[in-house]
Amino acid sequence: MKIQIQAQKRTGQGTGAARRLRRAGRVPGVVYGGAGGPVSIELDHKELYQNLVNEAFHASILTLQLDGAPQDVLLRAYNMHPWRGRVQHIDFQRVSKDKKIHMKVPLHFVNAEKSPGVKEQGGVANHVVNELDITCLPDDLPEFIQIDMGGLSIGGAIHVNDLVLPKGVTPVLHRGENPVVATVILPVIVTEEEEAAAAEAVPAGEVPTTEQAVPEAGAEGAAGADKAGEKGAKPGDKGAKPGDKGAAPAAAAKPAADKGAEKKEKK
Questions:
Q1: Is 80 exceeded by the pLDDT of residue 253?
Q2: How far is residue 87's CA from residue 99's CA, in Å, rounded to a whole number?
Q3: Which of 74, 113, 233, 257 lies most in the core, judged by the most C-beta atoms within 10 Å?
Q4: Which helix (H) or strand (E) element contains residue 265?
Q5: Average pLDDT over residues 67-76
Q6: What is the pLDDT of residue 205?
C-alpha cells in the first residue's frame, strides 16, 4: 500500500511568505520532474513530520494528493531547523512507471548474533554502510534490502556483489567496484585498552633515578657559578691595574730603608 500525503498549491512566494506559512503550521515545498513543470506546494507540518519518522517514507513511491489530484512522487530532499526540530522545506520528484529511478535504499542486517564470528569467536558485527544506491523501475523499488550475516566468521565480509537483490533492482557501482557492506571484527574496545596501557607504560631505562638527577643538577649549578665568577672577576681585574701601579713606590721604598740601616751599622 502506497503512502499518501496531502498538499495544496502555494500562491505566496519569497522568504516572507514562507515564514508566514511556517508560523501557521505549514511547510513550503516543491514538486518537479516528469511531464509537468515545478509547482510550489504547502503541506501540514504535523502530518509531514509523522511521515518523516517512518523509514518507508524515504524509500517508497508516494502518492501526493495535490488539491485532490494524485501524483506518484519520490521524496528527494528536506531541510530541518537547526534546533527547533521543525521541517523548513521539502522537495518531491514526479516519477513515470516506464522510467528507471535512482534511489538510496536502507539495508536491514539480520542473524548477526547467530553467526560463528559473534556467537563462538567473540566478534562484533560491523555495518560498513547502512544504505545502498540502486536503480530500478518505480514498481520494483523495495522499501529496504535485507542482508543475512548468519554465516560470517571473524574477518569474513559481505560485498555488494554477494547480495541477493529483488527482481529488477541493480546496484549503482563504478566499473570494477565491489565495496564491503558488512563484516565481523574483533571488539574495538579491547584494542583501545591495550593501546592505552602501552602508552601509559614507560620503559624503566628512560626514567631518571635520584642519583642520576642530583649530580646533573649540581654539575649544572657549579658550571653556572664558575661562569658567573669568571664574569665577575673581569671587572675586578681591570680595577686592580691602577692599584698595581700605586704599589710600585712602596716596593721601591724598601731598598731605601735598607740603605739607612746599613749606614747605622757602619757608624
A1: no
A2: 30
A3: 74
A4: helix 210-266
A5: 92
A6: 54
